[in-house]
C-alpha cells in the first residue's frame, strides 16, 4: 500500500531542484507543488508509476503574474482524499509547455481546451485543433497529418455521423472511416453544446453560480451542484448541518436512479428493444414524482445551496417517498431479471466495445465505464462527501470484469439498486435526525484555491475554484465525466461493426448535448447524402441504409 | 373544417431538435412521448426526419456551433410549419445570458434570433403538461396555416 508521503518523497527526488511544496490543504491530503515546466513529463512518469490518475490539465489566468498551468493527479483510490496538484507559472512572453498528449491520450482534449481558451502553446501536441470554439472562430488551427480527412479516407470510406443527434444520446460529430461494415478509424468532434459556462461563472457571485452550474446538465444537475459546493464550502470553511447532508445525499441518489433508468431505456431503444424503453420510462416516473414532491420541480432540483439545503422533508413526505422507492425496487428487479435473461439484449451487447483494464487506466475513463472494466474507483468511496462515508451509510462499489457493453449495462443496473438502498438509509436517518438544514452564521469569503469532486451518474466530476476574496470567483474550471468517456470511445469503436456503433456510443452514457443527423459521403461518386439520425438507428437495426 | 386542415391537424408529426441546452427539456419531452403522458393519443409522434415533420420543437439557447445546422433543419421542414420553443433557454437564452442579459460569445441567446417562432413554452424545464399544451397550440396554428396551402 502506497501512501502519499512515499509519492511526494519520490517526486521530490526526481524533480530536483525545481520542487517546492506551496501548501498542504485538507489535513495534508491536497498537496500543491510548484515545479518547472520541463519537469512536467518526468512528474507524469513518476506519478503514473504509483498508479496516480491524471484527472485534468487546466490553467488559470493570474493577471500580471502570468498563467498558471495545472496538472491535477488523484491518488484517492489508493489513499483516501489524496490529491497532488502540480503547477507551473508561465510568463505571457513565453506561453509554452510540454505536451503529455503523446504519452497518454487522456489529456489530449484537456490540452486542446486549455490551448484554445488560454493560448498556451503545447509543444509537439499530436492534434492541436480547436475543440470547443465555434467553426468561424478566428485563426482555426489546421488539422495535422494524422487526423486529416485525407488520412481517414485513405484508410477506408468516410462516414460522418452527426452533428445532429437525438434527444438523449447527445453526441458530437463522429467521422467514421469504414471498410465495408467495419470501423477502421474514428475522429470525434465535440463542442456543439459549448455555452461558455466557465466564463459565465466568473462573472456571477458564488451564490448565483449554484443555479448556473446546475444548468450544465439537466440529468445530473445536483451532482454538479454538489461538486461545486464541495469546493466552495471547503474554501469558506462552512460546516454543513447533518440533516442537510442527508437531504443532499438523498437527492443525489434519486438523481442517479433516474439517470440510470433513463440510460437503460435509451440503450434499449438503440438496439431496437422499444418495449424496455417504454417500461423504463414508466417505472422512472415515480422517481420523478419523488423529486417533485421534495423540491417542487421534476428535473432541476436547485435544492442544495451554499451552507445547506433549501428544502426540508416532513415525515409525511418521507413515508411517501419510502413507499414509492420500495415499489420501484420491486418493479426494477423484475426488469433486471428480464434483461439479464434476454437473448437478444445479450447477443447485441456481449463482447461489443471491449475496453480492457489497462486501456481504461491509460484512457482515464471514469464512473460506470471504468467500473465495468474492473477498475474500482468511485468518488463516493474514495473521497467521501456529504453522507457517503462509512459513518453515515453502508454500501459497496459495484464492479464487473466483463469490459463490454453488457457489463456496463449490468454495473448501471446494479448501481441503481445500491442507490435505492442508500436512499432508504437516508430516509431512515432523516426520521431520527432533526435540526437545522442550513448554517445560520454568516459566510465569510476567503481567498484561496481548492478542488471539489463528486460522483455524477456518469463518473467523477471535478471542479477547481480560485477565489481572490471578492464575491465573484476568479477562476472556475470544470471537468465532466463524459469528457474522458467520450474521448475513450475512439478506442472502443475501432474494430467493431458500424451497426454496433450506436450502442457502443450509448454505452458510456455520453452527456454533452447535441445532435441528430448523419451525413453519408460517398467518396466514389463525390456526392453528399444527408440522412437523419433515426434512419441511422434504423440502419443499425436493419443492417442497411435506404439512401434512395 | 376542410379536408386539408384535417390532414394536418389530426396527425401532426414533431421533429425534436436539441440546440445546445442542458437536456432537462429533452428528457421532459421524452417523458411526454412515453406511457404516462402519452402524447400519441393526439396523433402526435416523433418524425424520423425534418422533411417529414409538421412541427419543429427546439430546446436550448442555440449555440453558435449549432446555429448553421439549425437553419438547415428549419429549411428542410416543408410548409406549413410551426416552430415551438421549449424552455427558458430557447425562449430568451435563459440562464446562459450574461449579467446584463446579453448573449455571450458562445450562444445566440434565444431561438427567435435565428428562425421565426410560433409558440413559446417557458419554464426550466417546463412540465410535461405545459409541453403538451404548447404542442397543441402549435397544432392549432398549423390548422390556420394549412388553409393558406394552395
Task: Write up this protein.
- The complex is a heterodimer of chains A (548) and B (150).
- Chain A has three domains: 4-147, NADH:ubiquinone oxidoreductase Nqo5 subunit (Beta Polymerase, domain 2), CATH 3.30.460; 151-192 and 486-542, no CATH class; 197-350 and 382-393 and 420-479, Cytochrome-c3 Hydrogenase, chain B.
- The radius of gyration of chain A is 23 Å and the shape is globular.
- Chain A contains 18 helices and 17 strands.
- In chain A, a hairpin with a 2-residue loop joins strand 9 (173-179) and strand 10.
- Chain A is of the alpha+beta class and 548 residues long.
- In chain A, helix 6 (206-214) packs antiparallel against helix 7, helix 8 runs antiparallel to helix 9 and helix 8 packs antiparallel against helix 15.
- In chain A, the strands form five sheets. Chain A has a five-stranded mixed beta sheet. In chain A, strands 10-9-8-16-17 form a five-stranded antiparallel beta sheet.
- In chain B, strands 2-1-3-4-5 form a five-stranded parallel beta sheet.
- Chain B has helices at 3-9, 24-33, 67-76, 88-92, 128-146, and strands spanning 13-18, 45-46, 55-59, 82-86, 119-121.
- Chain B has a single domain (12-145), classed as Rossmann fold, CATH 3.40.50.
- Chain B starts with a helix and ends with a helix.
- Chain B is α/β, with parallel strands linked by helices.
- Helices cover 34% and strands 14% of the residues of chain B.
- The radius of gyration of chain B is 15 Å and the shape is globular.
- Chain B has five helices and five strands, in the order αβαββαβαβα.
- At the A-B interface, strand 8, helix 5, helix 9 and helix 18 of A face strand 1, helix 2 and helix 3 of B.
Amino acid at each position: 500500500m502506497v501512501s502519499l508521503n512515499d509519492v511526494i518523497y519520490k517526486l521530490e527526488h526526481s524533480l530536483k531542484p525545481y520542487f517546492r511544496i506551496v501548501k498542504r490543504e485538507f489535513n495534508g491530503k491536497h498537496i500543491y507543488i510548484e515545479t518547472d515546466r520541463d519537469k512536467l513529463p518526468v512528474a507524469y512518469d513518476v506519478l503514473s508509476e504509483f498508479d496516480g490518475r491524471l484527472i485534468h490539465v487546466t490553467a488559470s489566468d493570474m493577471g500580471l503574474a502570468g498563467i498558471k498551468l495545472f496538472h491535477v493527479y488523484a491518488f484517492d483510490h489508493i489513499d483516501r482524499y489524496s490529491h497532488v496538484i502540480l503547477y507551473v507559472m508561465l510568463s505571457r512572453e513565453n506561453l509554452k509547455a510540454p505536451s503529455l498528449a503523446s504519452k497518454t491520450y487522456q489529456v489530449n482534449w484537456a490540452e486542446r481546451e486549455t490551448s484554445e481558451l488560454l493560448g498556451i502553446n503545447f509543444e509537439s501536441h499530436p492534434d492541436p485543433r480547436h475543440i470547443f470554439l465555434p467553426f468561424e472562430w478566428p485563426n482555426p488551427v489546421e488539422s495535422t497529418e494524422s487526423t486529416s480527412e485525407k488520412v481517414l479516407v485513405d484508410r477506408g470510406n468516410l462516414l460522418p455521423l452527426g452533428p445532429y443527434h437525438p434527444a438523449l444520446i447527445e453526441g458530437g460529430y463522429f467521422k467514421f472511416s469504414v471498410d465495408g461494415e467495419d470501423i477502421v478509424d474514428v475522429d470525434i468532434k465535440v463542442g456543439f453544446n459549448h455555452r461558455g459556462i466557465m466564463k459565465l461563472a466568473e462573472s456571477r457571485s458564488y451564490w448565483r453560480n449554484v443555479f448556473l452550474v446546475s444548468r450544465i446538465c439537466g440529468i445530473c444537475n445536483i451532482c454538479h451542484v454538489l461538486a461545486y459546493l464541495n469546493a466552495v464550502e471547503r474554501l469558506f470553511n462552512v460546516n454543513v448541518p447533518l440533516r442537510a447532508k442527508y437531504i443532499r445525499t438523498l437527492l443525489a441518489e434519486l438523481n442517479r436512479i433516474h439517470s440510470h433508468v433513463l440510460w437503460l431505456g435509451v440503450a434499449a431503444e438503440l438496439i431496437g428493444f422499444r418495449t424496455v424503453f417504454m417500461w423504463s420510462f414508466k417505472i422512472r416516473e415515480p422517481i420523478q414524482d419523488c423529486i417533485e414532491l421534495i423540491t417542487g420541480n421534476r428535473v432541476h432540483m436547485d435544492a442544495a445551496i451554499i451552507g445547506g439545503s433549501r428544502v426540508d422533508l416532513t415525515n409525511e413526505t418521507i413515508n411517501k417517498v419510502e413507499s414509492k422507492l420500495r415499489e420501484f425496487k420491486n418493479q426494477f428487479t423484475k426488469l433486471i431479471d428480464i434483461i439479464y435473461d434476454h437473448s437478444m439484449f445479450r447477443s447485441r451487447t456481449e463482447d461489443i466495445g471491449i475496453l480492457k483494464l489497462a486501456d481504461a487506466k491509460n484512457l482515464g475513463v471514469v464512473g460506470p465505464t471504468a467500473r465495468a472494466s474492473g477498475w474500482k474507483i468511485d468518488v463516493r468511496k474514495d473521497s467521501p462527501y456529504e453522507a457517503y462515508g462509512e459513518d453515515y451509510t453502508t454500501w459497496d462499489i459495484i464492479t464487473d470484469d466483463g469490459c463490454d457493453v453488457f457489463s456496463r449495462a449490468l454495473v448501471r443496473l446494479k448501481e441503481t439498486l445500491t442507490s435505492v438502498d442508500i436512499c432508504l438509509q437516508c430516509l431512515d436517518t432523516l426520521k431520527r435526525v432533526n435540526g437545522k438544514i442550513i448554517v445560520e452564521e454568516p459566510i465569510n469569503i476567503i481567498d484561496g484555491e481548492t478542488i471539489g469532486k463528486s460522483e455524477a451518474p456518469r463518473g467523477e466530476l471535478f471542479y477547481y475554484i480560485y477565489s481572490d476574496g471578492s464575491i465573484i470567483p476568479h477562476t472556475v474550471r470544470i471537468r465532466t465525466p463524459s469528457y474522458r468517456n467520450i474521448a475513450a470511445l475512439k478506442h472502443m469503436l475501432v474494430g467493431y461493426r458500424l451497426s454496433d456503433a450506436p450502442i457502443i456510443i450509448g454505452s458510456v452514457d455520453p452527456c454533452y448535448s447535441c445532435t441528430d443527423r448523419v451525413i453519408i459521403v460517398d467518396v466514389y461518386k463525390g456526392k453528399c447524402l444527408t440522412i437523419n439520425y433515426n434512419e441511422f438507428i434504423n440502419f443499425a437495426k436493419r443492417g442497411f441504409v435506404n439512401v434512395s | 373544417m376542410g379536408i386539408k386542415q384535417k390532414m394536418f391537424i389530426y396527425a401532426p408529426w414533431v421533429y425534436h431538435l436539441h440546440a445546445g441546452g442542458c437536456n432537462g427539456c429533452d428528457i421532459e419531452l421524452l417523458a411526454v412521448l412515453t406511457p404516462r403522458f402519452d402524447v400519441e393519443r393526439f396523433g402526435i409522434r416523433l418524425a424520423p426526419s425534418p422533411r417529414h415533420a409538421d412541427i419543429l420543437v427546439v430546446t436550448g439557447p442555440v449555440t453558435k456551433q449549432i446555429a448553421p445546422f439549425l437553419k438547415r433543419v428549419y429549411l428542410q421542414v416543408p410548409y406549413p410549419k410551426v416552430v415551438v420553443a421549449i424552455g427558458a433557454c430557447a425562449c430568451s437564452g435563459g440562464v446562459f445570458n450574461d449579467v446584463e442579459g446579453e448573449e455571450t460569445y458562445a450562444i445566440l441567446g434565444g431561438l427567435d434570433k435565428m428562425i421565426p417562432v410560433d409558440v413559446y413554452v417557458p419554464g426550466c424545464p417546463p412540465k410535461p403538461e405545459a409541453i403538451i399544451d404548447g404542442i397543441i397550440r402549435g397544432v392549432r396554428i398549423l390548422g390556420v396555416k394549412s388553409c393558406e396551402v394552395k
